[in-house]
Amino acid sequence: MIFDFRRVGAALLFAALCLPVPALSAGTGLVFVSNEKTHNITVLDPKDYSIVKWIETSRRPRDMRFNNDNTLLYVACGDDDVIDVIDVATLEVVDHIPTGPSPEVFYFSPDDSLIYVSNEENSTLQIIDVAQRVIIDEVATGAEPEGVVVSEDGKIVYVTSEVSDMVHVIDAETHTLTDNIIVGTRPRRFVLTPDGKELWVSDELSGEVSIIDRATNEISHTLQFLPPGFRQVDVTPVGMEISKDGSTVYVTLGRANHIASVDAATKEIKEYVLVGSRAWGIALSPDETTIFVTNGLSDDVSIIDVASMKVLQSVQVGRVPHTVRIDE
């Protein structure tokens, strides 16, 4: 009997390719980057930053968040009015949750039972029951709401309105607006300090970060930025991340193509780091040794070593990367 080794080899290769991809364990450290214009998510290996997979999503994926046990990654897809749900083990989209027009940024209630999502086009904060996949209420906001964050106890929801230059304070139990805080021009994103005392708000067009005293709902400090070689008009802060001990806040500076590190106690800028074009989203690695920054106009992610505050490398991803999240 004569064996055709080429035919046997091809058959074995075909069988190998048909085997199911093994499920990944929790806490993989995988880095997920949403790309607005290519309608997908780039998944990076944390060891060498190679691309593990491209996950096709609904159109215009923007903000992303994990549930509490990191088994699912939720993705707001602005052009299809849905939140896609990705199984982190299989890296596949497994569900779609309908929303209002143009979902942008969202946040979970502490127990994962509710999603609070800003709907840009109809100027509302929408409240979605996750288990039932239905919208249970809406709260009117100023025009073009974006940033959303929920207090640690789940009792207060904060929402930015880009057009009205306000932070709206919403009672999470009654779904009523309790206060409006005037901040800088075009407020975008939030950071809550771990001690619960401050709410930091990035003001894109005034080039500032407003720091709100949560006890009084008044601005206690305003930070301004000016990295070397740029004009004030270039400084457009958006994304922020805070260290776990609350000592340092990292701020992306948009068209100024830098991030800034800020001493949270003294409110002094410690350092600027040059990254890609239009620095936007930002995330700290679980061990806080590495910073990932999405650059919306150079279509890449800058990877920064925290100890030296130097860029280690940049990785090309999809078109107009928006948000970066890490599976902790």
TrEMBL record:
Signal sequence span per UniProt?
1-25
Q: Which Gene3D superfamilies match?
A: YVTN repeat-like/Quinoprotein amine dehydrogenase
Q: Which domain of life is it from?
A: Bacteria
Do the record's keywords include Repeat? no
Query: Has keyword Signal?
Result: yes
Q: List the Pfam families.
A: Lactonase
Give the UniProt keywords, A-Z. Signal
- Name by which UniProt lists this protein: 40-residue YVTN family beta-propeller repeat protein
Species this chain originates from: Chelativorans sp. (strain BNC1)
